[in-house]
Amino acid sequence: MFEISNRDHGEFLVEELNLEAQLAAGRSLLRRHREADDELNRDISEIAEAAKKASGEYGMHLENLWVDQVHSTVFQGAAHSMSALGMLAPLTESLFVAMFAAIDREKLFASADIKGPRASLSATQLWDPHWVALVNRRTGKISADRELVPGIGQLAEVTGLAAHLPAGWEQRIEAFFRYRNKMFHHGFEWPVDERKAFSTAIKKWPNGWFLKSESNREPSIFYLSDEFIRDCLTMIEAVIEGTWAYLVARLHKKD
After folding, report:
1. Confidence band (pLDDT; 50, 70, 90) for 8?
2. Of 74, 23, 92, which Cα lies nearest the Cα of 230?
3. Which is more confidently placed, 3 or 56?
4. 208-220 pLDDT, tens per residue?
5. Domain spans of the chain?
6. Nearest residue to 152 (alpha-carbon basis) of 177, 180, 181, 115
7. 155 neighbors 129 (Cβ within 8 angstroms)
8. Label partner for 185 (CA 20 to 30 A): which of 80, 192, 230, 253?
9. Residue 2 — pLDDT band, cuts 50, 70, 90?
10. How many CB atoms within 10 Å of residue 250?
11. Residue 164 carries which DSSP code?
12. Residues 124, 122: Cα–Cα separation, whole Å
């Protein structure tokens, strides 16, 4: 007998998204980036070898060309990070937005069963992960703040979805969304105070997630490492699987 998988159920509930195609495109993008980096590194090595054998004005020309090519790697890495962000961030955001909308639309978790500060949000904010409910420690007053990552985390916790998500998921999306905001607002070269603040922030995340170039021993440009991008793609796949399992369990409970 044909059995519908969790993924089939989940994709039906968020049918406006083709998540498989988006993930495949992301992995293809990462592969092309790696090929471009390898090609540039080969060019740099070939110029360096030619410069060793040359002399006079031609030798000076090759040395200057080598410096220019090395300098270009700094910005190529930043461009690749920006490109990866353009794939990772919208995919993650659209996944959670569509998933919580499906929970609400299909009545898989009753709004009345949401407890804690989030229960005080308006009907339009309640299932929107762009909003998080905050409690003023001094007055106890609850307010709504538009902040995506805490909003996702809060909704995941109150609905029980968090138990189905992979370990470390929230830390990873916090890291690349924070980096996304810096890159999209400041481009490749951030103001000095922003560089220093981010250099401090990344210390709370595992080594190897972010790389950086330096100028005068100070951080200059930050990059997503290939390892972190691959890790995030794997994390997103695990989030999708966990989400589908959660949705199917709620769907069966509803029936």
Report:
1. low
2. 23
3. 56
4. 899 888 778 888 8
5. 21-254
6. 177
7. yes
8. 230
9. very low
10. 20
11. G
12. 5
Is 105 in contact with 131 (CB distance < 8 Å)?
Answer: no
Q: What's the predicted TM-score (pTM) here? A: 0.78
Burial of 231 (0-12, 13-18, 19+ CB in 10 A): middle
3-state helix, strand, coil in the chain (%, to 5): 70, 10, 20
DSSP string, 178-224: HHHHHHHHH-SS--HHHHHHHHHHGGGSPTTSEEEEEETTEEEEEEE
Kindly compute the dihedral angle of the four CA atoms of residues 13, 16, 19, 22, in this order, to the nearest 10 degrees: 180
Cα angle: 67, vertex 70, 71; to 5 degrees: 85
Residue in the block written with tokens 């990866």 = 84
Please state, as a whole number, how many other Cβ atoms lie within 10 Å of the Cβ of residue 219.
19
Residue of 166, 148, 160 lying closest to 233 (CA atoms): 166
pLDDT for the residue 95 = 86
